[in-house]
Write a structure and sequence with these properties.
heterodimer; A: about 675 residues; alpha/beta; Rossmann fold; Immunoglobulin-like; 8-stranded mixed beta sheet; 5-stranded mixed beta sheet; 11 helices; about 30% strand; B: alpha/beta; 6-stranded mixed beta sheet; two-stranded antiparallel ribbon; 12 helices; elongated
Chain lengths: ~675, ~300
Amino acid sequence: MGFLSPWFLAGLAAVGLPIWLHLLRKHKAQPVPFSSLMFFERRTQSSIKHRRLRYLILLALRMLLLGLLALAFAHPYLERKLLPQSRAGEVTVFAIDNSLSMRAGGLLERAKQMAKSEVAALRPGRRAQVIEFGSRVHALSEVTDDRAALDAAADAVEASDDRTSFAELSRWLRSIAQSLRLPVRVLLYSDMQQSGMPANFNDLRLNSDIRLEPHPLAAQATPNFTVENVIAPRRVYSGAKTRVLATVAGFGTAKTVRTVSLMLNGRLIESKPVAIPESGRAAVEFQSLDVPYGRNQGAVKIDAGDALAADDAFYFSVERADPRHALFVHDPGNARDLLYFRTALEASGQSAFAIDAAGTDQTANVAPSQYAFVVISDVGAVPESFERSLRDYVRGGGSVLIALGRSSMGRSRVPVADLAIQGTRYAGREGDLFQSAAALDASHPSIQQNNRWDDVKFFQAVRVDPGSARVVARLTDDTPLVIDAPLGAGHILIFASTLDNVANDFPVHASFVPFVAQTAGYLGHLDAGPPAVTVGSFEELRDPRQKGAAVDVLDPKGERVFSLAEAAAAQNLQFTMEGFYDIHRPNGRNELVAVNADRRESDLTPAAPETLRLWQNTASGISADGPGEGGRTAVSLWWYVMLAVLACVIAESLLGNRHLSVDKEAP
Amino acid sequence: MLQRFLDPATLNSIAGLDLIAKTVVDGFVAGLHRSPDFGLSQEFAEYRAYTQGDDLRHVDWNVFARTDRCYLKRYRGETNTQLLVLLDTSASMGYGSHSVNKLDYSRFLAASLCYLAHVQRDAAGLIVFDQDVTNYIAPSTRQGQLFRLLHAIERAETGTRTDFTRPFVHFQNFLRRRGMVVVISDFYEDPALIVKTVEPLRFRGNEVILFHLLDPQEIAPRFREPVLLVDMENAGATLEVSPEYARHEYRAKIDAHIEALRSQALGAGMDYFLVDTGRPLDEGLREYLSVRRGML
């Protein structure tokens, strides 16, 4: 018998309370003068003794009640050895960790050998299954008693770049135990990384019929260096040297100096010695990256010389391309909007786009499809042929930014978007001197990273009926300021004021630059994703509307990830290994995605034995220290104790009411 | 109105015994209905034929003139009697579970009886005793007798233990004339011994009334918890008593004692009256008058 909360047994001291009440307090009878004791006899004493004797039963009940209460709080349980037949039909699961960290020091091979020796030791007729797990669980064999199949499955376990997730393993074990409806014995072969433990311990819980037997392969932390992160641009549009910032880290390592190298397409660009503090991090900056045209495979490597070499390089992809052109249509008599827009775009460091300016009279023969996006800045009339071609361009996925100002006042509809113009809002001498931007939709890409327009003054705005279009920003008088109207596959972004500093002072505010940069990126479909992703993450391969067209993906080994049938239907892709994935999308865009293992795998510190014991104990009813054949089960006695408490309370109430009822007429 | 004045607690708040006695008796008398036994003096009783030797002064000559026969007219004569109050002042009489203890109550009762006797022109006397006679005032109708009695009653204090034998033997010597003897006591003694001690008074032709004064707590004691009782007549004697015993066995014993005393007293021709000190005094007075009636 044991107690889950033995400290509550200190409450047994409370048993002394009724003893004091009964045996000490009751003895102090108050002397009362009485006229004569003629009718009282010595045998009265025996009556009191009898009374006390009856009280002793009450005393015993009360002591029992308090004792039981203390016992209930201590949560008693009985350890009962399970009979061997109670785990009849037990299925043994060999769970082999094949995460990245298992590559260190040949741990995976040891795990496989240990599993195979256990397979050999299985009693005839015992059924078993071999699984491998990282962040996901893969069953490598059926539940079978065929040792050859189990051996083959153990041999088939391959090292992966995945990360360890004991929570996922527990979830799978719960699921398999539920579906098998049989006792499950789990032999876990892993380096038991602490970083594989979930944040919420409850995710590790196991069913009562699961018996977990961990076999830690690494007793103590192994020193390990890694390149933890690299910050580099995904695309560059000029020939200037590119800056690359890398972070290297040491786990369980002493203070040392290591050489960190920058590689591009397998060629060493630069190496630097880096002082890494004890179990710490250091940053390395490379300014010498000259990116050639095309998609390039970059990597930052550290000469770690540790047991785990797989995490010594961090891959990143960088693409060199010419800037894309954007058409800026404006009133030839007003060049200020062009000046402000172009300056803002250049000031943002966004060199992906080159602005081509054109007057309205020059647009008749312009084909919008050759531009990344088109800006129509407060022009009165747009040639009908150009407007028509713009609509086709937007429907095909292109984007247009339309700024409305003085020249738009005479129109009844917004060009291209065809939204009704309801009038113009002026801030004059009467009423408000100016309008401010209010109600900004920070989720829109144009203002996602900069939604502080508080000090921008708008003196004139064209009121447009947004209809079903998305209003991204409004002025304080509720006039829509920024409207995003979808048309076909493209977007039309309407700015209800001008891009010069006449109708507003927006261009001379700092918030104008990020607005222009983000709007250009949004309209030009500029993909500014990270230069690298982690193993296990997903990549969207196609737009849901693009059906039938094949997507071609080559994994880091140069093999096609999808079969032909899959290539025509696959919506997304999960990266499973480190390296570069070459993705050829249906829309013709090719992409090189650098994939790195989760750097939590680099911390080889094993989980504390107490943590493992706690994990084993989550299988309620299974003792952690009972790996014997039958196992031991803990039967909680709490309910029984509480029932006894209830019985005691009732008995005490009845007896106490009978013996201790106070005579109300007594003085 | 009457009950209010006869309530022991109310009486206890009145300073002088004479005022108490007057309050009780006057209130009591005023509350009575017309009684044939009260205020009798020269009242016709019967006619009787004349026989030789009879006093001629008693012949009703009017009857003789009409019938020519001699008849004597008989009147109910003045039957003034003598009241002797025996007041027990033993230590046990000092017990009281409420504002009026037994001695106070017995004082009120004795004073009221003396005053009532005084009103009726009866000679009243007092003997105060515990284990000995501590005070004696001979029955008399003299001027100031009432105040002597009241003074003596006022001065009565609790003494030692009760012993009926010695004082009764002693004061029997003082009794010359027949009358009424009222014994006010809690009678913590063997009923046979009490009756045996008091019986000689009855043999001498006295009407004996035993007022058995008991506190309500003595009749039906109620304790919340076991108590250590200390004997008031013997301070060294203590006894621990459980509420159950007091509620059951003690009550049986005291009831048996009361019943034995009552039956033996009645058997000996004495009147017995149990007085609960928690109840008004008029019941005691009524008992006295019912006996007094027989004396008239």
